[in-house]
From TrEMBL:
The keyword Thylakoid does not apply. The keyword Transmembrane helix does not apply. GO terms for molecular function: kinase activity. It holds the Pfam family Fructosamin_kin. This is Fructosamine kinase. InterPro entries: Fructo-/Ketosamine-3-kinase, Kinase-like_dom_sf. Belongs to the fructosamine kinase family. Keywords: Kinase, Transferase. It comes from Gracilibacillus dipsosauri.
Length: 285
């Protein structure tokens, strides 16, 4: 690790080094040198470009100039299953002091930032440790149908998480998805994995986004996920709505947007999420 820090130009002495708890996927460390403080992740079990894709997502968010993300100093791309490393800026803050209003304002601005005409993305990403294949679509509902719900259905069949009734209900919903999901909502850059653990408070409570799984799509998809597991203050939603209001039909389709994330959890963690998936499917089929 010290060698890597030297390579990126920090030759000063390491003063402090400790593990950071909390990540499901990677080993995480806090490293303080005389010059700087770093957050470093390592992993040897993930695909070779795992950290490169994380860095690309952070960079896309940074480019919008709307919300903070940690600076990325270095990432490895594995050539031979060796351990890879991501070196980032350490964000020192206390979430109890977080500025929820600013989080709402900044995220709304990110969603309003200029984006290309199409939905999806041109590179794969990861949701948890699942690969999320992507491509560009002219229709958002088609992207959501084919690249999100259909792929989780297929993975569920492979992983035995799709008993017959669940499978046929999900197929029915996928078939009639365009009754619910808009074809051409505004194209927004989305973080794509925005649960409560993927935002941090920096100095003076300033919000930062981490661990993105970006895509271009309907902002309601992002907000629906923030509501699934909680972790966002009321002030966040108030400020967000004041800048980029959600559509009138948001409450009607919110469960369909949450369904993708529940299917991901079902396919990663198992039947504990089956009941929540079935309740949504029962509502629409
Ligand atoms: P994983 O990629 O394994 O899910 P995380 O990125 O979620 O790991 O990070 C693990 C822990 O480190 C979390 O508690 C998170 O809040 C914290 N963390 C993540 N990035 C930073 C950072 N740049 N500075 C300080 N703490 C961070």
């Amino acid at each position: 690790m010290q060698e890597k820090l030297r390579q990126i130009g920090d030759k000063s002495e390491v003063k402090e080094f400790r593990s950071v708890a909390g990540g499901d996927i990677n080993n995480a460390y806090y490293v303080k040198t005389e010059k700087n403080k770093y957050f470093i992740k390592t992993n040897e079990k993930v695909p070779s470009d795992f950290f490169q894709l994380e860095a690309k997502g952070l960079e896309a968010i940074r480019q919008t100039n709307t919300i903070n993300v940690p600076k990325v100093y270095h990432y490895d791309i594995a050539t031979n299953n060796e351990e890879i490393m991501l070196i980032m800026e350490w964000i020192a803050g206390d979430k109890r002091q977080a500025n929820g209003n600013l989080l709402g304002e900044n995220l709304a601005s990110m969603h309003l930032a200029e984006a290309g005409p199409q939905y999806g993305l041109d590179i794969p990403t990861f949701v948890g440790d699942l690969v999320q294949e992507n491509s560009w679509y002219d229709s958002w509902v088609e992207y959501y149908q084919k690249q999100r719900l259909q792929t989780q259905l297929e993975l569920g069949i492979q992983r035995d998480s799709m008993p017959q009734m669940r499978r046929s209900r999900l197929e029915t919903l996928i078939d009639k998805l365009d009754n619910y999901i808009p074809k051409r909502p505004k194209v927004s850059l989305l973080h794509g994995d925005l649960w409560g653990g993927n935002w941090l408070a920096g100095p003076r409570g300033i919000p930062y986004l981490i661990d993105p799984s970006i895509l271009y799509g309907d902002h309601a998809f992002e907000i629906a996920f923030t509501e699934l597991f909680g972790g966002f203050p009321t002030s966040f939603y108030q400020s967000y709505q004041a800048i980029f209001p959600l559509p009138d039909y948001y409450e009607d389709i919110k469960p369909i947007y949450q369904l993708f994330y529940l299917l991901v959890h079902l396919n990663i963690f198992g039947e504990g999420y089956g009941g929540a998936v079935d309740r949504i499917l029962n509502q629409y089929t």
